[in-house]
Amino acid sequence: MSRRTSLKDIAERVGVSTALVSYVINGQEKEKRVGKEVVKKIRAAAVELNYQPNQIARSLRRGSTKTIGLVVADIANPFFGNMARVIEDEANKQGYTVIFGSSDENSGKMGSLVDILINRQVDGFIIVPAEGTDLQIKVMQEKKIPLVLTDRYFMEVTTNYVVLDNFGATYDAISHLIEKGYKKIGMIAYKSNLIHMKERIRGYIEAMNNNNLGNEIRIEEVRNNHVGIDVEEAMSKLTAGERKINAILFATNALTISGLYCVQKLSLKIPEELAIIGFDGNEAFDFFYSPLTYIEQPIEEMGKEAVRVLIEQINGSTKIVHIKLRHTLIKRQSSL
What we know:
The protein is α/β, with parallel strands linked by helices. Helix content is 45%, strand content 17%.
C-alpha cells in the first residue's frame, strides 16, 4: 500500500513551509494573508500528489465529526429501513454522514452499539430505544450527548422525541371498523411495556368502550422473539368458538405479515369472514388478494423532523422538543 501524502510532501513540492500548506488546506489563506500565486501552487500540488485530508484529525481540531449515530430496532424491517433512508438523505443535505445499526429490540445490543458509536465520536444520536434502555438514555442525557428518540420514548425520561400519535392512530382504525358495521373486533399486539405499544392498545380499548363494545374487547399479546408461533395461536383462538371475531387490527408491520400467513392457513375469506387493518405499508399488502387497509405512518416527516431537532441540539440548543405526528388511514378492500 502506498504511503499517504502528507502536508510536508506538498510543502517540499512547492518550496514553502508546512504551516503555509496547512493554512491553505484548511481554508485560512485569506486570514493568514497567503499570496494568490502561492495558494494556486499549493492547491495544484495537492491535486497532483492526490492528497487526502485526515478526517479524524480535522474532526478533532474542529470538535465535530459531522456524523450521526442511528440505532433502529431492525434495519431489515421495511418501516425502519425506510426511516433510515430518509434520515440518511436529510442528514446528507446538512453535511452529515449517518452510521447505523440494529438493536434487535435487545437492550444489551443497543448499549454496545451506543458505546461503539460514542467511541467513533459521532456528534449525536437518533435512537429507536429497545425496552429496558431508559437508564441508558438517561445516562446519555447526563453526559450532554445530543439525542432524539423516535418511534417510541420513555415517559419517565425527559428527552427529545419524534413519534406517531399511536393512540389516535388505533382509535381511528377501530372507529372505521365500527362504522363499517363490525363489532367483534380483536387486536394482536406485542407483549411490551414500550409506550408506543401501550398507546396502540389504549386506542383500541377506548374506541371499543366509547362505542359500547367493552364486552367484545379481545386482545392477544405475543412475544417479540416468538412471533410466528404466537400469532398462529392467537389467530386460532380469536377466530374460533362462540366469541370469534369478525375484524382484527394488527399492531405492527411484522404482526400483520404473520397474520396474513395465518389467514391463508385457516382459509379465512377477507373481508367476508374477517376484516383486517394492518400497521405501516408493505408491498405484501398490495399483492394480497384483498388489498389491505392500513395505518400509514408519516415516515418522511418523522425522519426529517428527527434530523432537524438533532442538529439543533448539536448546535447548542437546550430546548426539549416533543413532536407527535398524525397518521393516515389508507382504506381498502380488506375492511369494506
